[in-house]
Amino acid sequence: MDITTPALLFPAISLLLLAYTNRFLVLAQVIRQLHASPQHDSPLVKKQIPGLKRRILMIQYMQSFGVLSFLLCALAMFALFMEATWLGKWLFGISIVALALSLILSLAEVLISTNALSVVVQDMEGD
């Protein structure tokens, strides 16, 4: 394993962090719109609040594990540069685990988001 192996993850992790930031910004916009809406006390909005809270927390952890993965990947490259091969391999392995956790949380957040849309669609069908 040489220094280029961890470097291969840099573009992927950067794109993931960008996607996570976009999800956060969209979620923040939705929450602000719901709050500004005159119907923010409606039963439909109240049903969505627990999911919104979970999504905020999940995005926070997604971003945290993504940044941790990026940092560990950089440290792995540094260790490999310093010819500490064993340490570099371990840091890279932990980096991949952090990235995998971030992706699993991302999937869970998508599922929560889909459930929230189902609530809205069911409300529309009831009208």
From TrEMBL:
Can you name this protein? II family cellulose-binding protein
Instruction: State the taxonomy lineage.
Output: Bacteria, Pseudomonadati, Pseudomonadota, Betaproteobacteria, Burkholderiales
User: Which species is this record about?
Assistant: Lampropedia hyalina DSM 16112
Does this entry carry the keyword Membrane? Answer: yes
Asked if the record carries the keyword Transmembrane helix, the reply is yes
Which Pfam families does the record match to this protein?
DUF2721
- Transmembrane segments annotated in the record for this chain: 60-81, 90-112
Keyword annotations of the record: Membrane, Transmembrane, Transmembrane helix
Which InterPro entries does the entry link to? DUF2721
